[in-house]
Amino acid sequence: MDSQVSRRSSVNRFTIKMQKKLLVLFLIILAAFAGLSAQLYLITRDNGEEYKRQVLSQQEYDSTTIPFKRGDITDSNGTILAVSNKVYNVILDTKILMRKEENLEPTLSALKRCFNIDTNEVRSYIASHPESSYYVMARRVEYEKMNAFQELAKDPEAGANIAGVWFESEYKREYPNGSLACDVIGFTTSDNRGTYGLEEYYNDILSGINGREYGYLNDDSNLERTTIAAQDGCNIQSSIDANVQSIVEKYLKEFNEEYKDNYRPGNGAENVGCIIMEVNTGRVLAMAGYPDFDLNDTRNTENLIGMPLVDDKGMRTGEYVTQEIIDGMNDQAMYLQLNALWKNFCIVDTYEPGSVAKPFTVAAALESGAITGTESYNCEGSLHVGDHDISCHQTFGDGYLTVQQGIERSCNVVLMNVAFALGKDRFVDYQHLFGFGLKTNIDLAGEARTVTMVFNKKTIGPTDLATNSFGQSFNATMIQMITGFCSLINGGYYYEPHVVDKITTADGATRENVQPRVLKQTVSQSTSETIKEFCNTVVTGEKGTGKTARPAGYMIGGKTGTAETLPRKNKEYVVSFMGYAPADNPEIAIYVVVDRPNVFAQDDAKYATRIVKKILTEVLPYLNIFMTEELSDTEREELEALQIQIRTPEPAGEEEQLDEEGNPIDPDGEQAGEEEEEGETPEAAAARERWKSFPKDPETGYLKDPDTGHLYDPETGTQVYGGSLVDDEAQEEPENGPEGEETPQEEPETTE
Question: What one-character DSSP code corresponds to residue 136?
């Protein structure tokens, strides 16, 4: 009971006096909170915007992006073709600079000295933005300049009053070799995205992920930093060999210098392209076009001069770019013209391939069993098909020719007969099998679609079949032609062409090795051997059209091409040569196309074969392909002038015996020279040789028919300058092309 009384008395000790004190304390605290709230309201009302700017400024200053490094591009030997180097933006913090008046002049003086910055512009900015924390005064300065400024700022005397300047790092894409392989590599835009070539096709592989550095105050009000590192992009090793590429580009430029402003103002040709590919892998060793451009200065307009002028749809106008035209261009016209320069002629432009398509026609006929290859056909200079007379380039005719001789001499009449034996349905099937009308899926951005530029079984007619047999009336790209041709000479294996061999991570680990990929078999081994045999005679045969392509010390094979452009009879041609080496066991293929050479008579494949000869003369020794042929004194002198090592294998077997005229003698006693033409009268033979009696035209150097005025090559008797393949009635362009769309033109497609 006593304890209960004690508890009651303890409760009663919380007296009225204590309650009053507690109430006063509560009121004081409440008043304090009310005062603080009022003060916060006043601060927000009067200075809220200022404090907001300070907070945002602190966030911008202490939260920075760490840029990723875009992956390198190298050639097959590790030579750097594209690299990203760290550069620095010079940033001014006006608030820090102006904390002390004495900081202004020393800082501006240092900026002028190290970066040649316009200090008057900086003064104006400081005056109009006194609270700024971020102003870019100079972009992408090199490390050496940045380091020189930092060393100056550290100097106790000279740098004592330098303040408010800091550096923001980023990467600048650089191309150490300038224009080398520009069509293959492509370039990057200002936001570090790839455009054209490998840079665009592999943009996601080459790109990485930006990192970030955060700054914040901890519980002790100290600045803490958290860094999320950037993930750099992967590197790619291309199949391009920089040495082979350099040789190719050297001779494309040499051709342009030789024929620039020759017959008309402008470049040596509207376009010149070359591809070198490994026959048994699809690896591209070199791919180049002219005109080219400097990857470090892609908008330099000097490279546009001499190019065909394009219209607002990107199509050629017939004029050629001059400095006066450039000066009058608006932004849209300039972009379209630059786009025409930047595109890769070897994969973007389509054209009628001409006679380099003839081996495909023969291969299809052999493989299908339509011919045996031993047939002979009589060429009288033209063949009547439907309502038209379709000419051979030998307007006086070649008489009876075998299929092999038809390839050697590039006889259109023989090829038309072969195509008729094959039939239009099978011809279309084999065109599709060889890849015409389909993308090759080469790993480069911008490959043209050609599905509407070939005929199908419903649209092809007799005249179309005839002209298609020798490479006219359908369009293709250079990469389609050489990829398909490699399958004709390697046993029939169609490899997917590729320009990248390996992809590695930033730390060097292999992410992917690109292996050769066989997509299909186009012909059998036996057909492939026959095609090689036929194409070898184009270079070795007495009347072969590609003799001028053979480099000293080597035997090669191939096929020439001369294609009329649209509209017919415009005296404009695309000439080309598709070759391979060595002739007996091809390792590489080479394809050179000259689009409308700047000469009086364009229809001469020698403008392409001479380029091929010069390129192979240097490339074959570099690739360790041995010489097999005896060198003449002149050839030795040429090789010594080029400082090319003469490399020959150990002799094996007996030497081939030749007769007095240089023709091989068959071991059984028969001479392996030109076969006697069957069923031909002496009168017919004399008529075919009539061109030899024509007088030489002193102005052009060609033989001139006194009756018609037609010009003829003095070596081959081929009509040049304006000889059309189809008679006048067939010259009008059809309203619809192969697929019922626009007639296929040789114009380049505009790049997306």
Answer: E
